[in-house]
Amino acid sequence: MFDFWRRALIFPLALLLFSVLLWAAAGALAAALFFGGFLLGRLIFHLHQLALLDYWLADPDARVVPDGAGLWEEVFARLNRMVRLYRKEREQHTAALQHMEQATSALPEGVAILDEADHIEWCNPLAEQHFGLDGARDIGQQITYLARQPEFVQYLAMHDFSEPLVLRGARQDGLTLSIKLIPYSDNKKLLISRDITHLERIETMRRDFVANVSHELRTPLTVVNGFVETLRDMPSLENDMARRALHLMGEQTQRMERLVDDLLTLSKLDNALNALQEETVEAPVLLRALYHEWHLLDGGQHSLRLELESDCALLGNTAELRSAFGNLISNAVRYTPQGGEIVLRWQEQDGQPVFSVLDSGPGIAPQHIPRLTERFYRVDHSRSRETGGTGLGLAIVKHVANRHQARLEIASEEGKGSIFSIVFPAKRRLLLLTAEAPG
Prior knowledge:
Elements (H helix, E strand, L loop, with lengths): L1 H25 L1 H31 L12 H35 L3 E6 L5 E4 L1 H7 L11 H4 L3 H9 L6 E4 L7 E9 L3 E8 L1 H36 L7 H31 L8 E3 L1 H16 L4 E6 L4 E4 L1 H18 L5 E9 L2 E8 L21 H7 L5 H11 L3 E6 L5 E6 L5 E2 L9
Parallel strand pairs: 7-9
Antiparallel strand pairs: 1-2, 1-5, 3-4, 4-5, 6-8, 8-13, 9-10, 10-12, 11-12
Helix pairs in contact: 1-2, 7-8, 8-12, 9-10, 10-12
């Protein structure tokens, strides 16, 4: 800083000293004209340097920083170093951005960045294909203006991105996408889309295979079971071994029939084309019917109790809910020791209808609870065979709950019983006396 002022003031001071000497030698007029002329020349010089700077600033990317003279030489030199450093950093940033774009272009997923208002800030080529976007034209556009599927618009509006959205028929016929939104930074979102069309086709083939095989098995099983029952009822059959064999054959064919029925039920629930047929379900009436049915089937082996703490109804499918409720009751009856207590409870929690089955059974270890709804998962294989379970009951319950936007909650402790609850959203709650629409 000191060096700058020294260099800046040396010329004016020298000019002033020379003008004073000229005043003494040639008079005031000559000194004033000399001093004014030099100041005017100095002003023109600085204006010229400023003109050069202004010319460069008008297009700094295409033009070279001026060389300058005098004090301006050092200023322009520093400015030139700053520009070179800036251009080097910009080239590095551009190279890094291009590298990132190339990397995201190679990803098997479509990637788009959305701002807080769901406007598109950037997208890779695969996202353009999935949503029909144009990276050059659609930047800044709201994503819902371009991807208008109602399911996708609703998914964005709900702000619940814990589960991915499966979007069928997205932009192209037959294209199925799995969409995941990841919030980050200041209310921005990362939109990731994956083409799962091939996986969907494989799943459809698997589902159709299970459904077809199960359907084909029903007839031979019915025939075999009919012959077994006929043979068991024959009065001339006196061989104890034969009677026992026929009894076991009858039990196993009935178990296979139940397994086939459950597989067909799951296939129907899995079918995306099988839309939920909604109606008013009078839950208290349905639960009373299930209670009386299981009270008779149980034959007094357990203390079965029904607690109706709410009279609200549900918006849902009666057959599916009856199947789900029945499976929970069936599991409690199967796994609760004789003399144990089973409670069927219908209540409301924070405006949400809840159906619960409480039992005093052996309980379930914590490591098993997350896997209970998997198909054919069994905590105790030998006990499951003894009780005649198919291993599909809780899978059916979970599917029915998902179709009703409900969740299955399981609370259990070894030696202290279990509580299985289906918690329905408040929008499915109906008050028959006041309204026939969801809460």
